[in-house]
Specification:
Cofactor: FAD
InterPro entries: FAD-bd_PCMH, FAD-bd_PCMH-like_sf, FAD-bd_PCMH_sub1, FAD-linked_Oxidoreductase, Oxid_FAD_bind_N
CATH topology: Uridine Diphospho-n-acetylenolpyruvylglucosamine Reductase, domain 3
Shape: globular
Number of strands: 4
Protein name: FAD-binding PCMH-type domain-containing protein
CATH class: Alpha Beta
Organism: Ephemerocybe angulata
Helix content: 25-40%
Keywords: FAD, Flavoprotein, Oxidoreductase, Signal
Order of helices and strands: HHEHEHEE
Largest sheet: 4 strands, mixed
Number of domains: 1
Distance between the termini: 75 Å
Number of helices: 4
């Protein structure tokens, strides 16, 4: 039986999807920031690599708006045993913005558009 190349690609890419525990999704949902995961309507676009040779699939992609939310995401990732990577623009040839491997939690920093600095004398 011969399979069409597109079907072979579909089967191969499906096997690369990381197992995402329901715990990490529920731990991150409802905290005031957007969470994208395999099966969510925005996941395919959010997990699109710059270089298709390195098409890693993150477990979850988050879009925090505050420093406290970033802290919450890191704490949940650590508690649930996930690696964390920040994505903040630009392109990474080896898809480090997607974790550099399957199953990472991505903290997308696109909502952080201002910088502030406090100097103490």
């Amino acid at each position: 039986m011969l399979l069409a190349p597109s079907l072979i690609f579909l089967l191969a890419s499906h096997s690369l999807l990381p197992g995402v525990s329901a715990d990490v999704i529920s731990d991150l949902s409802g905290k005031g920031f957007t969470v994208s995961y395999p099966g969510a309507s925005n996941y395919t676009t959010a997990s699109q690599p710059f270089n298709f040779r390195y098409a890693y699939k993150p477990a979850v992609i988050t879009y925090p708006t505050t420093i406290d939310q970033v802290s919450q995401i890191v704490k949940v990732a650590k508690a649930d045993g996930y690696n964390v990577v920040a994505r903040s623009g630009g392109h990474s040839y080896v898809a480090n913005g997607l974790g550099g491997k399957n199953g990472s939690i991505v903290i997308d920093m696109q909502n952080f558009t201002r910088r502030a600095m406090q100097c103490q004398m």
